Amino acid sequence: MVEHTVKAFDNEISQLRGLVAEMGGLAEVAIHEAIDALVRRDEEMAQKIVANDARLDALEAEVDRLAVRIIALRAPMADDLRDVIAALKISGVLERIGDYSKNIAKAVRKVEGRGKIEPLTLLPAMAEIAQGMVRDVLNAYGARDAVLAVEVIRRDDKVDNFYDSIFRNLVGHMMENPATISSAAHLLFVARNLERIGDHATNIAEMVYYAATGQYCSERDSGGGSSSETST
């Protein structure tokens, strides 16, 4: 009976991690497709991205139900409890990343005269970094890789630098070309959504670090100067 219970618990943990991995894959694809639709002004793809967001919402609800079931019936402790809590929190963050991709997709039909807005060329490079952060942080989650999680956290500075550059470019462009203010403002909104995706990938990385080590990721671990705080 004990062996059966342990096996059932292991299966539920594996299922939970599988659901999170599926959400991560969908979120990563949504980022790529949203920017691709924006660059090519593909409104059909944009509508598909908006519709597909419902799948992420459904998966998040499934993670919630399974995590609550595991906590209620299995009473996990230590590493197992951190794993369940991490999955619960990460699924919520991935759902928000999906929302940001959906926001980008909704901007596709609102941006006109894109050939005249030079900062648009910077967005795909910014999106590539943000997408890579999501991909790598999910790999870190799957492998319980605290080192990779820290590397993802450090990469967020690159996304922030892109946002600052795009912001300056777009503000300058709007001042020089008042007729494009509306479209440029939507592109600034897109850049802000990508910056938030980077922030959320960083949040996931911090959760992965905690799940793997039992410690909070300190400023020293991520490149700053303070020390880790141990949690039980």
Number of strands: 2
Morphology call: elongated
Assembly status: single chain
Question: Could you say what the CATH architecture is?
Answer: Up-down Bundle
Q: Please count the helical segments.
A: 6
Low-confidence region ranges = 225-232
User: What is the C-alpha radius of gyration, as a whole number of Å?
Assistant: 20 Å
DSSP helix fraction: over 70%
Describe this structure in words.
The chain is an all-alpha fold and 232 residues long. The protein has a single domain (2-230), classed as Phosphate transport system protein phou homolog 2, domain 2 (Methane Monooxygenase Hydroxylase, Chain G, domain 1, Up-down Bundle). Helix content is 80%, strand content 2%. The chain has a two-stranded antiparallel sheet with strand order 1-2.
Set down the secondary structure blueprint:
Blueprint: H1 2-40, H2 43-74, H3 78-106, H4 123-143, H5 146-176, H6 181-213, E1 215-216, E2 229-230
Antiparallel strand pairs: 1-2
Please provide a brief summary of the model:
The protein has one domain (2-230): Up-down Bundle (Methane Monooxygenase Hydroxylase, Chain G, domain 1), CATH 1.20.58.220.
Question: What are the salient characteristics of this protein?
Answer:
232 residues, mainly alpha, Methane Monooxygenase Hydroxylase, Chain G, domain 1, two-stranded antiparallel sheet, 6 helices, 2 strands, elongated, disordered C terminus
